[in-house]
Amino acid sequence: MSRKPAAAAAWFPLADGVVALAAGFALLPQSRVLLVADAHFGYEDAIGGGAALPLWSTAEMTAAIAIGAQRSAAREIVFLGDAIHGSNVSAGAAAAVVGALDELRAVAELTFVAGNHEGRSRGAAILGSTVEACERDGWLLVHGDKPGPPGTRTIIGHLHPSLHLGGDASAPVFLASERIVVVPALTPYSRGLDVLSDECIAALRPWDVRRCDLHVVAATAERVFPFGALSALRAALRRPAAGRPAPGFVRRRRLESG
Known about the structure:
- The protein is α/β, with parallel strands linked by helices.
- The chain is built from 6 helices and 15 strands.
- It has a single domain (11-254), classed as Purple Acid Phosphatase, chain A, domain 2 (4-Layer Sandwich), CATH 3.60.21.
- Helix content is 21%, strand content 24%.
- The strands form 2 sheets. Strands 7, 8, 9, 10, 11, 12, 13, 14 and 15 form a 9-stranded mixed sheet that branches.
C-alpha cells in the first residue's frame, strides 16, 4: 500500500484486502465484513454511578454503524472488542443497548470479539455469545489487549489511535501495515492514544512493527485523509512550526470534515 499522502476520499486501501471507510470503519470487501472498534455502548450509564445519564452516544453510534453497513453492503458487522463499556449497568441501560444491537441485527449479522471491557462475563448478559478471536479473509481479528500468534496478519482495536493536533483537537486515525491494522475507536468520549507518541509505538511492540512500516489515515464522518508514513508525519509535525490544528479537524467529540 502507498505510504505517501493522498487526497481525501470516501475510502482508502489500508492493506491487502482491508479498506478504511469514513466514520472510522474498516471493510473487508471480499467477504463484505464491516469492522467496528471500541464502541463502548452504555458508557454514560457505566460511569454515572446510577445517575441515569442519557445514552446519547449509543443511539448516535448505532445510527452511524447502520449507515456504514448499508453504504458498504455489509453482510456481517464484527465488533473488535469493547462493544460495551462494562456489564455492570442499570437494567434500563442494558435494555437500551440490547435494543440498539437488535436494530443492527436487522441490517447485518453481528459478531462480537470480547475485549477487556467485556470483563470476565465477556458481556454475555448484553451481547449474548462472544468470541476471543475470529478469522476473515486471511486476517485474524482480535481486540488487541493481548498479542496474537506471531507472524499472523492481524486487525485490532483497543489502542484508540488518534492524531493530536494541538490543544484538545484530535482526529481518530487508522494505523496500517501489511501485517497489522489498527482501527480507531468509535466512541466519542476518548481523545485516544497519540500515534506520534512513544507510548503508541511501544504498545505495538508485540506485533514487531516500526514507525516506518506504518501509514496513517485519519477519518471524519464523510471522508478519510491519508497522511502517509507515520515516520514522515511524525518528523513533519514535530518541527518547531507545528502545533496548530489542521484545517477541517476540531475536537474529537465533534470531528467533522471541512
